[in-house]
Amino acid sequence: MLIVSWPSRQEAIKVKMRMFFTGKLIIEIIQILII
To answer: CA-CA distance, 35 to 26, in Å (whole number)?
Structure first.
């Protein structure tokens, strides 16, 4: 593993959070469509 500088590390965390929230949104939409 490469040592990542703090700014890019924060960016990676932001991207992960965004992906996590979009994933939750997609799951909720699918559940609504199924019901």
So the answer is: 14
Supply the pLDDT for residue 31: 95
Structure tokens at 19: 């992906």
Tokens of 30: 């699918």
Tokens of residue 24, six digits: 């939750």
The structure tokens 């990542």 sit at 4
pTM here is 0.52
CA distance 12 to 4: 10
